[in-house]
Amino acid sequence: MGESYKVAVIGAGIAGLLTARELQRQGHHVTVFEKASKVGGIWVYTQRVETDPLGLDPNREIIHSSLYKSLRANLPRQAMEFLDYPFPKKQGGDDQRTFPGHEEVLRFLQDFARDFGLMELIQFGHEVIRVELVDEVTHEWVVESRTRENESTWESKEELFKAVVICTGNQSEPNIAEFPGRDTWPGLQMHSHNYRSPEGLENKIVVLIGNGPTAVDLLREISPLAKQVHVAVRTPGFQMPGVENNDNVWQHSMIECAHTDGKVVFQDGAIVDTDVIIHCTGYKYHFPFLKSNGIVTVDDNRVGLMYKHVFPPSLAPWLSFVGLINRSVVFRVMELQARWVAKVLSGTVELPSQEAMASSVEELYSEMEKNGIPKNLTHSLLNNEVEYVSWLAAQLNIKPLKRWKELTVVSIIGGGVHYGENFRDTWDIDKWMQEIDSSD
Ligand SMILES: Cc1cc2nc3c(=O)[nH]c(=O)nc-3n(C[C@H](O)[C@H](O)[C@H](O)COP(=O)(O)OP(=O)(O)OC[C@H]3O[C@@H](n4cnc5c(N)ncnc54)[C@H](O)[C@@H]3O)c2cc1C
Predict the structure, then answer these.
(1) Ligand 1 pocket, 82 CB below 6 A?
(2) Which pLDDT value is given to residue 419?
(3) Cα–Cα distance measured from residue 261 to residue 41, given in angstroms and rounded to the nearest whole number
(4) For the chain, which residues score pLDDT lower than 70?
(5) First and final C-alpha spacing in the chain
């Protein structure tokens, strides 16, 4: 064990819990700030939705969770367990499914927090409103948090830390589709962040924008009761599961424009009298509390500069982010990131120089540009998950993990596509894993 510091972790979702555990293992003194009253982050389902269904009003009260009532994990349990903490089907447990419901995932995270003694480290009901470097020489950070005193008043406090790890998640601030006429179109528009159930959509004509896992789930849930569902898909050549077998579902290209008489015009020429538009269009990075003097920026959903998606070079290792990555088997990737942060802080793993870190990020940007990959996919690991995970494992002296290659998000999506829209119930993952093991 090396140096030991006073470290603040912001957020007690998966990233925050893993980070707290790893920091504690390295002997650091950890305080976790969590604005909610429970651990689990996005997995704490709530029936409540925001006052602005599109999430555009900056003064709205933010509801953190983006889960819908029927949500089941789109990854198998085996891809959501940690290195030394499995996610088994519990004997006699309520949910024995390989792709569990959200309640079961939350239970797993609560067990994890309890079993590693993390609950005592967490200040619940503490929303962080400012994180700022107050001393550039000693690298001291102030964390200002507020707690609710009563309905209308807050009490705030400041505390100094040597290091701060930001684990506030990246799936709560809606990103919406832009098209001419969006503002004046008269029907109901919402982002999937504020969708909980199909109630109220009976006999309606619904447009779903997007073709990610949420759009696929919502299409399956809404189409049996809606009059019609039209899916607007941006990716050329993508065949939306669930369109072919339903005679009240159509797939289109993107929306061209929307009119004040309720009509929605698609780029493929179709015109549909529409009642409801649901934007299943993902989320934006958002760190309203971070005062970094322009060092950490968010530009077109790229958080920059960020060495290996974790450390801003000029503030490393005293400021770090766990969980910026997406389109990956996030639980396992975040575990390695958390361990890396903890070991870098204790001095048992070294970072390259500030200049070397900055040029590594610039190289990534040029590589992306050369390959035509848009900026907003900077933190998507879709096609280089194995490479990234192997790199992190090497920093930590961990052997390449068994089944690591098979349990990447690409192979799981591949399996999902192969088994169709009901893949959660038709794909025998245990058999698939046995076949992988026997082919070793
Ligand atoms: C609809 C949906 C389905 C998904 N399904 C899967 C799946 O099947 N499998 C999978 O692996 N992943 C899935 N994901 C991805 C999921 O986001 C991640 O698995 C994971 O929850 C991210 O964890 P996190 O800790 O980074 O963030 P979060 O879970 O968002 O946790 C962040 C925490 O920070 C707290 N916080 C935020 N701001 C502050 C502040 N200012 N002060 C104090 N506390 C703060 C929040 O209250 C929250 O508790 C899904 C995501 C969505 C939206």
Answers:
(1) no
(2) 85
(3) 40
(4) 1, 400, 440
(5) 36
